[in-house]
Amino acid sequence: ARLAILLSGRGSNMLALVEATKTGVLKDLAEVVVVFSNKPDAPGLAFAAEQGCPVASLPSQGRKREAFDAEAAQLLQQYRPDFVVLAGYMRILSPAFIQPFAGRILNIHPADTHQHQGLHAYEWAFENQLSETKITVHLVDEGLDTGPILAQQTVDLCGVDTLAEVERRGLAVEHELYAQTLAELIKSQQNVMSSAAETSRVPK
Ligand code: GRF
Fold first, then answer.
1. Is Protein biosynthesis a UniProt keyword of this protein (predicted)?
2. What is the best residue among 13, 138, 171 to mutate for testing ligand 1's pocket, by most ligand atoms within 8 Å of CB?
3. What does the angle CA 141 – CA 143 – CA 96 come to, to the nearest 5 degrees?
4. How far apart are CA 41 and CA 76, in angstroms?
5. 158 C-alpha vs ligand 1 centroid, how far in Å?
């Protein structure tokens, strides 16, 4: 499957996904066809280039949401992605972006999306002294962290006494869960396609 990864920041999830396509659970299942950012100076974009990934950017600053999203979608379509994978992409997507990729956009959120949406999810878990939190991978719709959940994994926060430690434990789970969820999604789609091909070969 062809993955377009979108980021606005440091890109640790992007790096974990690239690694998984090279030597991990996404090997022989997926390739990163572009890493895109709305921030041309995002550190993650430079890391992606170092990994040999094609990179592209389009500054969103000062642009109207719909116009920017339409242009970004058009740019990404040139790479023919099967999945658009948001990895710290700090924008709420408008229909102009969602429609061309409907049902094929994924996001990772560092909380249970039923309990917490938007920014600062690790701060929220830390300040509320939660004994555990969840990482969520979900399909993206027009809301903020509202789309159908594909996978969740618990992060144990017992004995944690700094925000940095919450983030360290959370990110370790994020990096595994995102690649794993994509691998399962791609495999299940391949199964659907091969059983459809089987069915069409059955003599009438
Ligand atoms: C991650 O915590 C992710 O869950 C959230 O934004 C952060 C991005 O971090 N959506 P990174 O850029 O992948 O390191």
1. no
2. 13
3. 60
4. 19
5. 22
For this structure, is 109 an active site residue? yes
- How far apart are the C-alpha atoms of 86 and 45, rounded to whole Å? 13
ipTM > 0.95?
yes
Residue 196's pLDDT band (cuts 50, 70, 90): confident
The domain made up of 2-201 is a member of CATH 3.40.50.1820: no
Residue 202 is predicted with a pLDDT of 60
Give residue-wise pLDDT tens across range 86-119.
999 999 899 999 999 999 999 999 999 999 999 9
d(CA 71, CA 108): 23
Q: Which residue ranges make up each domain of the chain?
A: 2-201
Choosing from 174, 177, 181 the residue with most ligand 1 atoms within 8 A of its CB, the one to mutate for a pocket test is: 174
204 pLDDT band, cuts 50/70/90, is low
Ligand 1 closest atom vs CA 14:
13
